[in-house]
Amino acid sequence: MPALHNPNQNHLLAALPTKDFELLSPQLELVPLALGQMLYDPGTQMRHAYFPTTAIVSLHYVTETGASAETAGVGNEGVVGISLFMGGDTTSSSAVVQTAGHAYRLDRHVLKTEFDHAGALQHLLLRYTQALMTQMAQTAACNRHHSVEQQLCRWLLLTLDRMPEARELVMTQELVASMLGVRRESVTDAAGHLQNMGYIRYRRGHIAVVDRAGLEKSACECYGVVKKEIDRLLCDVRLRQ
Question: Which InterPro entries does UniProt cross-reference here (predicted)?
Fold first, then answer.
């Protein structure tokens, strides 16, 4: 019977050659991440990188007025804290837990040391960073040019990709509106239309995906662009035996 928690649940950790992983694994600390938990604030010194396994973390930009919007999401395909190995140590965005679960935490000094060895970990992290940059750029374009309904479809599909066994998401319309940077009423209208089409079923605090194919047809091209780039850059990610 497989262990309940395993670093292989994170695709980047799973892709490390056995020798590299065995050097890193004693430093990995399994931590629970609660819904709404802030992993870091803008401008603060980041102390750890997080490799999510079952949790999903949202990277947000918050304006001076307090308004916010998601720039990218990070789940089991990636890592939270790219500034630690890109040389910044701090970032202008915040990281907040969107979906409760677990992650493996790694001290920033250990991450930087291993990254500087210019081995397999560095190669993986740089390719993941490129995929994350694609996601951020596509999110910006999507928010500017596509409807709230299309944005909602994109966001739901990317969330489902990070939770392959889930078909029901625990989240309020207020949370979704905050992620997309739109009014709650706009999310209500978009979700209502998708429900009428038979693609989702919504009840307070829960969104169940009934017809994924329908969501994919209603989504803009942004979902496909992001998914294709992640698959291309991380195509050799495999479960270590």
Answer: cNMP-bd_dom, cNMP-bd_dom_sf, Env_Response_Regulators, HTH_CRP, RmlC-like_jellyroll, WH_DNA-bd_sf
Crossing angle of helices 148-161/221-233, nearest 10°?
Answer: 30
Contact 100, 33 (CB under 8 A): yes
Mean pLDDT of 67-84: 88
pLDDT band at 108 (very low <50, low <70, confident <90, very high): very high
Separation of first and last alpha carbons in the chain = 15
Q: Write down all domains in the chain, each with its CATH number in brackets.
A: 7-143+226-233 (2.60.120.10), 147-219 (1.10.10.10)
